[in-house]
Amino acid sequence: MGRSCVRAGTTAFDELRQVWPSTVLLALAAAAVAWTLAIPLALFAAMRPATRTDTTIGIASLLGVAIPSLWLGPVLILLFCVAVPVLPFPGPDAHGLAALVLPALTLGTGMAGILTRMGRASLREVLREPYILAAHARGLSVHKVMLCHALRTALVPLLTTGGTQLSSLLGGAIVTEKIFDRPGVGTLLLSSVLTRDVPVVLACVVAMATTAVLIQLAVDLAYAVVDPRIRIG
Fold first, then answer.
1. Residues 6+ apart with CB under 8 A from 12
2. Would 106 disulfide with which of 26, 70, 73, 150, CB 3.0-4.6 Å?
3. By the 8 A CB rule, do 104 and 29 touch?
4. ∠ CA 208-211-217 to the nearest 5 degrees?
5. How far apart are CA 122 and CA 170, in angstroms?
6. What is the 3-state secondary structure (H, E, C) of 35-79?
7. How confident is the model at residue 230 (pLDDT cuts 50, 70, 90)?
8. Beta-strand runs (E) in the chain
9. DSSP helix/strand/coil, 11
10. What is the rounded average pLDDT of the residues 211-227?
């Protein structure tokens, strides 16, 4: 990709290599938080339609989508670093998994809200299929029907949404990186654009585009794992 126009003696790849692991770690942690929250909430909402549980989960998921990282991040810092100091304060000296908790929560909350709403709608549609009624008729428990039959089919649109969200996290975490003072590809891309460091900008764009293609390929392959109909076809 050539050499940096701003930092003499440094290649664009060197600039990207310094921040890429931090961005990937944050994106994976945020995705783990989102999936861990979304799947149980979507299952509870689908199993109890038109109840207080369903309404509460729907409102919570909507708030997760609506609350911006610019507000959520400082609130989490005030709660868990100032009021109840159980996590390290953000900064260059914050390292380890403990320093990753708050950024992952900030970045994963919005993704969790999207996945929850998508999962709830997908599960409701799947639960109306004839093979779900047949599974109940064979005497299978509700939990087994939900986990082994309904959830596997409902995961197909969730994988699509989750893969797209994960791709966007790699370059769209600029606000979160700034709030928690973490290095990242988004911050590097923004600073390189402002300083007109064209080789570094190209390196960031190529890296994010390549990663997005690989993620979508992994999602396509995962379709055949969760849905046997796709594999047989």
1. 1, 2, 3, 4, 197, 199, 200, 202, 203
2. 73
3. yes
4. 145
5. 26
6. HHHHHHHHHHHHHCCCCHHHHHHHHHHHHHHHCCHHHHHHHHHHH
7. confident
8. none
9. strand
10. 88
Give residue-wise pLDDT tens across range 95-149.
Answer: 778 888 999 999 999 999 999 999 999 999 998 889 898 988 998 888 888 888 8
Domains of the chain and any CATH numbers: 12-232 (1.10.3720.10)
CA distance 50 to 69: 30
DSSP SS3 for 3? strand
Q: What are the b/e assignments for 137-163, b being 16+ CB within 10 Å?
A: eeeeeeeebbeebbbebbbbebbbbbb
Spatial distance between the Cα atoms of 112 and 108, rounded to a whole number of angstroms: 6
Could you give the CA distance from residue 61 to residue 216 in angstroms, rounded to a whole number? 25
As given in the structure block, the two tokens for residue 8 are 């003499």
**Ramachandran region, residue 172 (left: φ > 0; alpha: ψ -120 to 50; beta: rest):** alpha
User: Other CB atoms closer than 10 Å to residue 45's CB: what's the count?
Assistant: 25
Can you tell me the distance from the alpha carbon of 192 to that of 198, in angstroms, rounded to the nearest whole number?
7
Cα distances (angstroms) measured from residue 64 to each of 38, 87, 129, 160, 214: 11, 22, 30, 19, 27
